Amino acid sequence: MTQNEAILENGAAERVFRRGDDSAILRMSESEIHAYKPLDDRRMVVNMGPQHPSTHGVLRLSLEMEGETVIRSKPIIGYLHTGMEKTGEQLSYLQGATNVTRMDYSSPLFSELAFSLATEELLEIEVPERAKWIRMLMCELNRMSSHLLFQATNGMDIGAVGAMIYGWREREEVLRLLEKITGLRMNHNYIRPGGVAADLPDGWRDDTLRILSNLPERLDDFDGLFTGQPIWHERLQGVGVINSEECLALGITGPLLRSTGYAWDLRKDIPYLHYDQVEFDVLVGTYGDCFDRFAIRLNEIRESIRIVYQILEKMPDGDYRIQDKKVTPPPRTRIDESMEALIHHFKIFTEGFKVPAGEVYVAVESPRGELGCYIVSDGGPKPYRMHIRGPSFTNLQVLPHMLQNALVADAVAVISTVDPIMGEVDR
Amino acid sequence: MTEEDHQDSLSTETETSSAVPDGEIMYEVPVSRSRGQTVLHPNRDQYVETIEKLSQDGFKVCIDVTAVDYLENPERDIPCSISPERFEVVINLLSHSKKERLRLRIQVPESDPVIDSIFDYYPGSEALEREVYDLFGIKFEGHPDLTRILLPENWHGHPLRKDYDVGSIPVQFKEAPGAG
Lengths: 427, 180
What we know:
Chain A has helices spanning 3-10, 14-17, 30-34, 84-90, 93-100, 108-123, 129-158, 161-182, 204-227, 230-236, 244-250, 255-258, 266-269, 290-314, 332-337, 339-350, 391-395, 399-403, 408-418, 422-426, and strands at residues 43-48, 60-66, 69-76, 191-192, 195-196, 358-366, 369-377, 385-389. By secondary structure, chain A is mainly alpha-helical.
């Protein structure tokens, strides 16, 4: 019996299967909430958000409260819905990455990666080695910046406003490197079907090493500020507890699932790119509370540093994109010499390349959990259907269960450690 | 890279045949392979039984529920025994113990877009089924709270259907002729 199976032996998920009035979820529409007349006059429904500093964008929670205790709750989403899946059907595969990168705006490279891997699976092409390692490098750097952003916002939500400045400062260092490599701080459109957009610039190795050598000390600062601090413990330990069985039943992935002690990381368990060639540990918690989720994210930055050191060692020379004329535009120099190359270039960028019919689902481990991309192709240059399975969207379902019988002050800590990115929730 | 190569690459028609081996059965349901991934094709009526079997067979996580509207593209790879319909509900399951994924594709006719909910086996499908209902108008019978999730409650239509126009909103600029 593996460790994971042993954990499940003890767990129970009855509370997430519950229906009816005693469930954790306030199943009421907006008009019903207006007409809501509680039997007990101590009960009332309070709206939290959509404009609330702790809701990370535009998340709204309807809370049924008794005094300061939350009885039932319901997350209400959709305030950021812009129909990105519909937009994805209007864009060619080459343009598609610019669309998906805007979903999870704090870890955009993972959406690009999932989309590109799915497209490559449909095309049945294999990208060059260097492209794979560059993709891993970029994703791990992005994981660091995303988790550092979590440290900043989480600290601020709990009341440690100083964390905002520290987290943001470290994240900015990483973003500066990403900007140097891709040209943009966010929404990079760097990972594309067939490889990456450009080779790594001069001096990338020194810049990366500088970040890797500075960061551990700064992470120790976070440890000093938070990990051993009594107030921090009081606010986070034992708050928002969830067990492994409940997580699996609700489809929860990522740090939330790992915080319950259940070791599941797609990089380790269903490896993609070259994650089977690097050494790293999958970090798990013990109690499944807010503190475990905070600690896992902090220490995953350290694991990412470990991985990036190995990537620097193993980075091969070679091409950064596939030289398949169906997918890749001809090199710039050829366009000056050859009329056909010019036509070819023009065709790829106006019509796009055709992708054989079929359907495929590909998943990667984003900082928030399993990020999947389901593409149906009808043989044309645009996806017939493009669906992104965002981890934040599914993870949000855990909120009512975590909040049941919690204090409203803890709701802020719970939302913060679930770490939803609303761009990905609403798409 | 020569000019002829470019010509070739542009004129080559892409192969679209991924052969569907007929008669393969898993969990008493016809199976097809799509780029090496296993896809089950249960009927709308029997699919909850299939889900029950799968959930007992280690597929403990429902990763994703989505749908596809095949209005403009009725051709697709499905076993001969399955008759294609306009909508297809796609369910992605994951088994942690086997480290395997399975996909279920269930045909849902346009005239009666109703399908049973899998909430009783996977409570995590709740938000996902609401999303499919919201964007495709496919109703999930037995869902505890089937309301719109992304769009406002009073919205008309289901945007991810292929007959729902992308549309545009006129934007007025200060300099535009006629703008007040």
